[in-house]
Amino acid sequence: QKEVEQDPGPLSVPEGAIVSLNCTYSNSAFQYFMWYRQYSRKGPELLMYTYSSGNKEDGRFTAQVDKSSKYISLFIRDSQPSDSATYLCAMSERGGGYNKLIFGAGTRLAVHP
Amino acid sequence: DGGITQSPKYLFRKEGQNVTLSCEQNLNHDAMYWYRQDPGQGLRLIYYSQIVNDFQKGDIAEGYSVSREKKESFPLTVTSAQKNPTAFYLCASVGGPYGYTFGSGTRLTVV
User: Fold this and answer.
1) pLDDT single digits (tens) A58-68
2) Across the interface, do A49 and B98 touch by the CB < 8 Å criterion?
3) Which residues contact A109 (CB under 8 A, 6 or more apart)?
4) Chain A residues with CB inside 8 Å of B96's CB?
């Protein structure tokens, strides 16, 4: 079993839809949770991050962490064609560069006009 | 502008050849990482370095080698021992608890 599981999709939605992306994990020691967005042939860029449990909102994006269920989510409201990318969840036990980041496989999202 | 630069963007390797991928950062970050990305598998850790002159193997280090002689530079050599090197290679440097900054990647193809 992988430490982090993420449905690779692809996920295709119409413009304006609410998108829900999810990851499950097995290591209860994970405390730092991140979502990266990766456009085709580019490096990932940090989109959202949370520490421990709870919600965090930034514009059209909301990140949720449920440590009791070992489940994290990213919601995208009013999705736009420019949101079409691969979304990678990532997590670690400690922050910074002293504990490696474990990534999900990434979910490919396509938002069509 | 601070950032992390990978070169070349595309690289072609012949059978039995060693090739080196460059990664340079001017963010003054101590930690640097190399990941390999294959379709449907996410990012897998090859090597990482938390300080100059020190580096550690990741999950898939076989067939790869690195050096960390300068804080700014963390080159990755793909040796002939790596039997399936065709992939997208990503370098990252780390500052702060969430501060993974990735380069734009190098796509390596065996010809």
Assistant:
1) 999 999 999 99
2) yes
3) A9, A10, A11, A12, A13, A19, A21, A79, A83, A84, A85, A86, A87
4) 95-96
